[in-house]
């Protein structure tokens, strides 16, 4: 996408920091996928730049994480105080968060870490903020709604993908959820775990919402099918959380949903990055053919 190149993002970073009286000096890009994350070492902060989310929506996300940290001592990433999100003219939004330096040789995260944090989250009461309703394909629909052709996909493939998203969302709307509805993280996978000294914490709260709790569990099973995670990873998660997804009546439907969600990031960057284009093609073809035997390229 034109507005998501590193050069353009740095311009937007400068604007956002200027709006909050901060310096973007020595900013370091540490993540560039569905969103972008810059570290501001002089301020012990990070700036997240998001596509398609309003400053108001991200403000709600920050309200939730403050409540988690301050009222429940929950290990969530916390926003920088007195630095509300900045809505940029480009359609991007910048938000400011505390920086948690990660150890070079820290112990690996385990699925039990993730399961414990999700179990604790799901056991909490509803926050005082008005959570948005969970939207399974918000980011993907925003990419698909572009008027211009999408890099890496033909017009026919884009139409097929739109129809597929509609069909899966229709089935999700009619699904039964044994674990009930409540506050969900919305992207509960191990890549969102961080170390805060010797404590494991959960980050990337962009998708916190009101939805079925199962959607926070399915990424672990999806990781085993699409990214080669071993069976012990899944079993440890199920044992720690106290629920296994393998026999869930909507298990295959949720796998289809997670498959489609995994197209958003590669679609956003396929026009500028060969690895993202390769990942997009592999994932799209695996989804369309129903092939689950090949491990996907990680990004």
Element layout with pairings:
Elements: H1 6-19, E1 28-32, E2 36-40, E3 45-51, H2 55-72, E4 86-87, E5 92-98, H3 111-123, H4 138-144, H5 155-173, E6 181-184, E7 193-196, E8 199-202, E9 209-212, H6 214-226, H7 231-241, H8 251-261, H9 264-269, H10 274-289
Antiparallel strand pairs: 1-2, 2-3, 3-5, 4-5, 6-9, 7-8
Helix pairs in contact: 3-7, 5-8, 6-8
Q: Can you describe this structure?
A:
The mean pLDDT is 94. The protein folds into 2 domains: 2-98, Phosphorylase Kinase, domain 1, CATH 3.30.200.20; 111-289, Aminoglycoside phosphotransferase (APH), C-terminal lobe (Aminoglycoside 3'-phosphotransferase, Chain: A, domain 2, Alpha-Beta Complex). A 5-stranded antiparallel sheet has the order 1-2-3-5-4, sandwiched between helices. It has a two-stranded antiparallel sheet with strand order 6-9. It is an alpha+beta fold. The longest helix is centred in the middle third of the chain and has 19 residues, at 155-173. Helix 3 (111-123) runs parallel beside helix 7 (231-241) and helix 6 (214-226) packs across helix 8 (251-261). It is 43% helix and 14% strand.
């Amino acid at each position: 996408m034109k507005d998501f190149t590193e050069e353009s993002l740095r311009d937007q970073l400068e604007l956002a920091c200027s709006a909050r009286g901060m310096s973007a000096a020595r900013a370091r890009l540490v993540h560039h996928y569905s969103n972008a994350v810059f570290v501001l070492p002089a301020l012990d902060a990070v700036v997240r730049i998001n596509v398609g989310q309003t400053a108001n929506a991200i403000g709600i996300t920050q309200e939730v994480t403050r409540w988690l940290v301050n009222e429940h001592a929950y290990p969530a990433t916390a926003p920088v105080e007195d630095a509300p999100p900045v809505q940029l003219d480009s359609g991007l939004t910048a938000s400011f968060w505390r920086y948690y330096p990660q150890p070079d040789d820290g112990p690996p995260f385990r699925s039990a870490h993730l399961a414990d944090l999700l179990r604790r989250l799901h056991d909490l009461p509803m926050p005082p903020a008005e959570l948005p309703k969970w939207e399974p394909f918000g980011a993907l629909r925003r990419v698909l709604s572009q008027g211009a052709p999408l890099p890496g996909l033909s017009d026919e493939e884009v139409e097929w993908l739109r129809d597929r998203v509609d069909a899966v969302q229709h089935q999700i709307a009619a699904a039964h959820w044994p674990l009930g509805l409540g506050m969900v993280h919305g992207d509960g996978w191990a890549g969102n775990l961080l170390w805060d000294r010797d404590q494991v914490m959960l980050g990337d709260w962009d998708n916190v919402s009101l939805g079925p709790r199962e959607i926070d569990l399915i990424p672990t099973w999806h990781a085993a099918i699409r990214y080669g995670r071993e069976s012990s990873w899944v079993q440890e998660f199920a044992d720690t959380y106290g629920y296994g997804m393998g026999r869930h009546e909507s298990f295959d439907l949720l796998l289809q949903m997670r498959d489609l969600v995994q197209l958003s990031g590669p679609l956003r960057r396929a026009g500028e990055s060969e690895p993202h284009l390769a990942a997009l093609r592999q994932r799209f073809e695996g989804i369309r053919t129903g092939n689950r035997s090949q491990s996907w390229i990680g990004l």
